[in-house]
Every structure is written in structure tokens, then in C-alpha cells.
Design goal:
By secondary structure, the protein is α/β, with parallel strands linked by helices. The strands form five sheets. It has a seven-stranded parallel sheet with strand order 17-18-16-15-19-20-21, with helices on both faces. β8 and β9 form a beta hairpin. α1 packs across α5 and α2 packs across α11.
Length: 507
């Protein structure tokens, strides 16, 4: 049975409602009663908080009172805000510690696909990537020919997928924006989950394929092909040529088999979206426990969404293996502060309306919960968007907080499994990388059972521990990497979610 409230730290001046609380409800282990209705997952004050005084949750500052808050009051956007900026003690590397690796002979394994160059895949797709939006329809027309029973003769091929986007022209031919786009496309072209890839362009776009290939040092080969609609004589001709090329690639792509490989070959992307007041209590810390297990088994995890660690970045810098790594993260935070100010925004543009309805008040609160996905392991590196992720250990990738854009960068960096925590209900998928969705609360899991892969709600009710659910998540990661389909895969989700970061001006 759910507790009336959840206290996360003795020093907190708020507790979290475990159920919907009516006005006048006595709060456990206090002499306080609610002064208003408190929705499940929202905060209620257990002490008086004066104007300008910090509101504390997780024994961390999540905001400042904007009006007097009495014991029993609902604490949310109506009486709590970001306040003035406050100093975080980055204490570089203060909490870094040696990783207690599991002996190699005892490490977890999964059934992976070993490529000729030694890279390990969790899926086996053929992809059609586009250099520009102008080739998106042709790419989809090509892959449409391989739906239904068209792949029955190739049981070891997971699918033929078009990954199109709305970018690639109307942009500068040089600079950060096109560099990021090229890194993203090249990262997918190299991804081990693709047996082969066609990069399809129009011919006159800014993002010229030959320049992409040269800049990213791609090597056209049996598994990497390039095509141009204009060179081939138009859309119909390009579609015919693309279909024939894939037909020729399928027999070789089908010649794979799964074999036992160590979990050190896993690179796990960490995402959260549609968060709620339980995200930092159930699913995120349980996923963090699974991350610690993965790292102890020699694997790699990648945390991202820079605007959504804002205000909690000091928890990561303290775990950085060196001051240089920690300072790379702080530099990215400063870039985002400058970027948002230049574009008329602010770092507190999150939480979203859905997040707020779920009980999250400020970006500080959301960030503190989001960082819990990273477990307790050392931060070994910080990389730019779509750069290769090199482990083992926890890596941070600089990305926006928008889930499809962030996950696209992680997959481009080499993530071959993805875990996505959600409290409001996300339907995310990310081909060619299998994506698992972790529900923060049991009502959501029951309501959206076709989308949710695991229920973390029993942590909030006391029916399971973070460790128990964390171990279940880790086992599900291994099973999924071995070929078990995730809910999003069964629904066919994941192609349209390919969304490279559109960084620059559209011209």
C-alpha cells in the first residue's frame, strides 16, 4: 500500500505526496496537516519557509520561496521559483573513487552480433540515411518495398529503415551546425546495429555527400553506399536503384548469428521524458543502480540533456575522474547559459507543462532527479553532440533536453541500447537501437502497458527496493540486447524519432 508521504532526506523541508491528499490530512511523523489538496507526486511543506528561503528536496536546493509557505501548504509553481543564481560547489573529483570491477570470469553476458571488425551489435538493420530533407520521401519509398512479408527469406535481418530529417540545406556550408549534422549522419552510418547503409542525397544541397564522406572519413564499401537523386535521373529512378541495391545487400546481411559476448560491449543511453514527482524517487535511481552494475561489468553508459542537469551539475563534477573532465562539463553549462540568453530564453524553460502537472516545479528539481539515472559511478569523459562515446564508465554527451534530439546524438555516438524513464507516459523508440521505457509509477504502467517495459512504481509503495528494480532493469537490458523485442519495437516506433540537432539559423 502506498505511503501517504515520502521523505527523501531528514534535512528536507518538503515531503512528497504518495497518494492524493485531501485538505486536513495529518502527515506521518509530523504534527502537520495539509492545508490544501495535494496531488500524488507533488510536494507539501513540513516546516515554514520564508520568502527567499531555499526549498530543499534530496537535501539539495530545488528553488526558493516566492511567498511565505506555511507547514501543510502545497509547494509548487505558485509559491516557488528559481530565484537568483546560487553558487554550486563543483569540488572537482572530490567523490571520485576506484570502480569495483567484477572479475572478468564472473561478468554478465548477452547474445550479441559480432561484426567483422569486432564491433558488437544488438540489432541487425539495413538503413537508408538522408543527407537532406529533399531526399526524405525517396528514402521512405525505397524502404516501403521491404515491409510485410518482403523480408521473410531473411529472418536474421531486423528490418530496412529510412531515417529522414528536415535539415541539410538552408544552412551554412561551414561551422558548428553542419559539423554536428555530419557527425550525426556519420555516426549512424558507422553504427554496429546497421549491417549496411545507403546515404541518399538530392544532389544540390548544402550538405553534399562527397564533403560529408570526406569530413567524417567515411569509407564507401560493400556496407556503405551513396546515391544522388539528380545523378540517377529523378525520384522514380533513384527508388528503383535503391531497391535493387538493398536486394543485393540482404543475403550478406542475413549471414549473421548471435553469440555470447561480455556486457562490456554494451553502451547504454540514458533518457527521461514526461517526468513527474516520482521520477527522481523510483525509476531514475533504479536505472542508476543498473548503470552501476553495467559499469562494474565493464560497460559504458551515456548521460545527456545538458539543460536538464542544470543546477545539479555539481553532483557530476564531484565524480569526475579529473578536474579537466569536470571543467569540460562546466564549460558546456556556460555555453548553454550564453546560448539561451542570446536567443531570449532561460535555463528554466523546463519543466514542461506535463512535468509541472506531475509535480516538478523548477529545472533544479528536475535536474536533481535526472542525474540519479547516472548512478554513483565516476564521470570519465564529456563529449560534444554525436561524438563517439568511448568507455568504459559513465560518459556525458552535450545535447538539448528535447528527447528525440538528445537520443539521436547518443545513438550517433554508438549507444546500442537505450533506457527511457517516464512518469507521464512517453511512447519513444529509436531505431536502430532498442529502447526500453521505465514507468515511474504503477498507475501509468497499467494505463500504458503496451508502451511501458517495466514498472518501477513498487519502489514508491515499499513493495520493492531500488536494488531489486535496478537488478531487474539490468537483466532486461541484457535480454533486450540479446534480441528480445522492446514494447516500442513491437509497435514499430523508432524511425520518425530520428531528429538531428538543428543548431544554426535556417536561411
Amino acid at each position: 500500500m502506498a505511503s501517504l508521504t515520502i521523505r527523501l532526506h531528514p534535512a528536507d523541508n518538503v515531503v512528497v505526496a504518495g497518494v492524493d491528499l485531501l485538505p486536513g490530512t495529518p502527515l506521518p511523523e509530523t504534527d502537520v496537516a495539509t492545508r490544501a489538496a495535494i496531488p500524488s507526486g507533488h510536494k507539501v511543506a513540513v516546516r515554514a519557509i520564508a520568502v527567499g528561503e531555499p526549498v530543499r528536496k534530496y537535501n539539495q536546493v530545488i528553488g526558493f520561496a516566492t511567498q511565505p509557505i506555511e507547514p501543510g501548504d502545497h509547494v509548487h509553481v505558485h509559491n516557488t521559483g528559481m530565484g537568483d543564481s546560487f553558487e554550486r560547489d563543483y569540488a572537482f573529483s572530490a567523490d571520485a573513487h576506484p570502480t569495483a570491477l567484477i572479475p572478468e570470469a564472473e561478468r554478465a553476458t548477452f547474445q550479441g552480433i559480432v561484426r567483422p571488425d569486432g564491433r558488437v551489435a544488438t540489432r541487425n538493420f539495413i538503413g537508408v540515411l538522408t543527407s537532406v530533407n529533399c531526399s526524405a520521401t525517396a528514402a521512405r519509398l525505397i524502404t516501403d518495398k521491404f515491409r510485410g512479408d518482403a523480408l521473410d527469406a531473411y529472418p536474421n535481418v531486423d528490418g530496412v529503415v529510412a531515417l529522414a530529417h528536415g535539415y541539410g540545406c538552408g544552412m551554412g556550408a561551414q561551422g558548428e551546425a553542419i559539423d554536428a549534422l555530419r557527425r550525426t549522419i556519420a555516426g549512424y552510418a558507422r553504427h554496429p546495429n546497421f549491417a549496411a547503409v545507403i546515404i541518399l542525397g538530392l544532389g544540390c544541397e548544402v550538405n553534399q555527400i562527397d564533403r560529408l564522406v570526406e569530413a567524417e572519413r567515411l569509407d564507401p564499401s560493400e556496407t556503405l553506399h551513396t546515391m544522388s537523386i539528380q545523378d540517377l535521373g529523378g525520384t522514380a529512378s533513384a527508388v528503383r536503384a535503391g531497391v535493387e541495391r538493398i536486394k543485393a545487400l540482404l543475403p550478406k546481411a542475413n549471414e549473421v548469428h548471435r553469440q555470447t559476448v561480455p556486457a562490456s560491449h554494451l553502451t547504454l543511453a540514458l533518457q527521461c521524458g514526461g517526468s513527474d514527482g516520482y521520477s527522481g524517487i523510483t525509476a531514475n535511481p533504479a536505472l542508476g543502480y543498473a548503470v552501476d552494475l553495467l559499469v562494474r561489468n565493464g560497460g559504458t553508459a551515456v548521460l545527456s540533456e545538458t539543460p536538464e542537469v542544470y543546477g545539479a551539475e555539481h553532483l557530476l563534477t564531484r565524480r569526475a575522474v579529473s578536474r579537466a573532465v569536470g571543467e569540460k562539463l562546466v564549460e558546456r553549462i556556460r555555453w548553454w547559459e550564453d546560448y539561451t540568453s542570446r536567443t531570449g530564453g532561460e535555463m528554466n524553460n523546463n519543466p514542461s507543462p506535463g512535468n509541472k502537472k506531475g509535480g516538478l516545479t523548477t529545472i533544479l528539481e528536475k535536474s536533481l532527479g535526472a542525474v540519479a539515472k547516472a548512478g554513483t559511478t565516476n564521470l570519465v569523459d564529456v563529449v560534444r553532440y554525436a561524438e563517439p562515446i568511448v568507455g568504459p564508465g559513465l560518459v556525458f554527451m552535450d545535447t538539448p533536453g528535447y528527447d528525440p534530439v538528445s537520443a539521436t546524438g547518443q545513438v550517433a555516438g554508438g549507444a546500442n541500447v537505450l533506457c527511457f524513464t517516464t512518469g507521464r507516459g512517453s511512447v519513444f523508440g529509436s531505431k536502430p537501437t532498442p529502447s526500453l521505457k521505465l514507468a515511474t509509477n504503477t498507475p501509468l504502467y497499467r494505463k500504458m502497458t503496451d508502451d511501458m517495459d517495466i514498472d518501477c512504481g513498487p519502489i514508491a509503495t515499499g513493495d520493492a527496493t531500488i536494488e531489486e528494480i535496478g537488478r531487474a532493469i539490468f537483466q532486461l537490458i541484457l535480454d533486450t540486447a540479446s534480441g528480445q523485442k522492446s514494447k516500442s519495437e513491437l509497435l514499430g516506433v523508432g524511425a520518425d524519432e530520428f531528429t538531428p540537432w538543428q543548431m544554426g539559423a535556417v536561411m
